Structure formats: C-alpha cells, structure tokens
Amino acid sequence: MEHKTNPKILVVDDERSIIDLLEYNLRRNGYQVIVARDGRQALRLAQAEQPNLVILDLMLPGLDGLDVCRVLRRESAIPIIMLTARDEEVDRVVGLELGADDYVTKPFSVRELMARVKAVLRRTTPTTPTETASGDVHRAGPLEMDTLAREARLDGNPLGLTHLEFELLETLIRHTGQALTREQLLDQVWGYDYYGDTRAVDSAIKRLRAKIHASGGDPALISTIRGVGYRLTHP
Question: How far is residue 193's CA from residue 232's CA, in Å, rounded to a whole number?
C-alpha cells in the first residue's frame, strides 16, 4: 500500500503564544507543521518546503502579511488562511482580493480554525480518477472546465485559477443560468458554516471576473443578481 504523507502546513506569525497554540493543535490533528516568524522567512520556506497550506498572520515585522500573500499568489496557487485582528477590516478585504482563501479573526476558536483548515485541504487535495466522474467536462459558451484534469479554459486558453476559484467557477457552471445565493456558494465551495460573512464570496467572484477579462472574455458572464447572489449566464 502506498504511504500517504500527512499535509504540511506553514504557520506564519510573530507571536510565540499563537505559534505554540497552532503548532500543538495542528500536530495533534495529524498535520506536519513548519513555522516562520516573519514575512521573508515565510517566502523562503514556502518555496523550499512546498506546504499544502499557509496560515498567515497579517501583522508581521518587516514584510507584512499582505505583501507575503501577494507574492505567494503571484507564484503559486497554494491555499492561504489569514489571521487578522478584529479591527483590521480593510486589510482583511484586501487580503481576500489578493487571493487568500479564507480568514479567521483573533482571538479565534481553535475548533473553528481546525474546521477551516480541514475544509480548505479537502478542497485542494487531488482526487483520483475513481473518485471523480471520468472525463467530467462542463461547458458554457467560451468556458470549458475539465474537473478530472482540474483545468478551466476560456476559448481554449487556460484561466490559471487557484483551487478555490476553480471550485467556485465549477459550482457556477454546473448551475448555469441558475441564481445561487452567497450562502449556497459558501456551503458548496467553502464547505462549512461561515457565520453569515459573505465577503469571501464577493472577493473570489471579483478575482474570477478579472481573470476572465484578462483572458479576453466578458466578465459579465458572471452576473450579479441583486438581493440574491450570482449566476453564470450562457452567452
């Protein structure tokens, strides 16, 4: 039987108490843990260790968490969960728009954070052909999604989506023409109770539209249904 390596998580924080808390609970849940105490060390470790997930504090000495998020997203699709203080509303929104998958506010519930870690890793863990419908391809006008190959293309050109963006677009394309509420998208894509906070959905939709536009497509393919949510329209 092939040995399955436990997921590796990079924790980036400069508070010793937070590091100890996260390291203890992540290891207790079976994860490998590596630690960085500043932004530059985080980027070095992310490149050298290729973790499956980054838990990233925004308030870091030197290179802050937003800069780290920006560089990580430019170089890879690695999932990122941000840690923010309750009064960092603007930074939190900016982090989501830069491509962070999720956020947790300090002080946080360890149980909630572990649930979010599990949800993100479940979404980003590659499936085998026996776990996915063979040759499952979805199309809507110029959009084409191959769920087995995990590729999304617009007029044949790769869109370069993160895991989260892929799952979100796949959910929309599976329900082409149907309005989906933000709560439905949170449930189907993020995979847990998000306590009514839908900014993550809005930020991810914004990034999807930007990538569609950058590839020569019409960002209005994903339309906003006022008071409801979003819909992928068939051209």
Answer: 24
Tokens of 48: 């050298």
54-86 pLDDT tens trace: 999 998 988 999 999 999 998 888 999 999 886
Cα distances (angstroms) measured from residue 145 to each of 27, 34, 39, 202: 36, 34, 35, 21
Strands 151-154 and 143-146, sheet pairing: antiparallel
Whole-model pTM?
Answer: 0.78
- The one-letter code for the residue type at 138 is H
Sorted by where each begins, the domain ranges of the chain are 8-124, 137-232
For the domain spanning 137-232, the CATH number is 1.10.10.10
**Nearest one of 55, 47, 53 to 15, comparing CA atoms:** 55
Q: What is the pLDDT of residues 99-112, one digit of tens each?
A: 898 888 888 889 98
Looking at CATH, the fold of the domain delimited by 8-124 is given as Rossmann fold (3.40.50)
